[in-house]
Prior knowledge:
Elements: H1 2-12, E1 25-30, E2 35-39, H2 52-62, E3 68-74, H3 85-94, E4 99-104, E5 107-112, H4 113-116
Parallel strand pairs: 3-4
Antiparallel strand pairs: 1-2, 1-3, 4-5
Amino acid sequence: MEELIREAEGARAGAYAPYSQFRVGAAIETESGEVFRGCNVENASFGLTICAERVALAAAVAAGHRRFRRIAISTRAEVPTPPCGACRQVLAEFAPELEVLSDAGELRQLWRLDELLPVRFALKRAGRDGTHDDGRMDG
Length: 139
């Protein structure tokens, strides 16, 4: 976990946060052990800001990964900061039981994503065999 935290700290250095000054770095570890980094990127139109966790996840997905073990988040907040609700939902799409480690300097907190987001939004997808995620058949 220490190496993943260092990766998140390194990613935080690249954060673009001229409005909030709240710099965040994230590092997500794939099931195969590869690490992808992300930082928050703010925008003058605040709703267009993207969080570090989603940047890291998107980089990993763009590289072909779909399974993840853990994510580390680095801030300089007074207390460890979990992912926002939007990030929780996006992460849960791929890894509902993801380990989430937040580092705030001297303090750290470890959660599981399903603890942070106990009920997530999910659509039932029809598979090639005509069944849905819940085993129900089309028809």
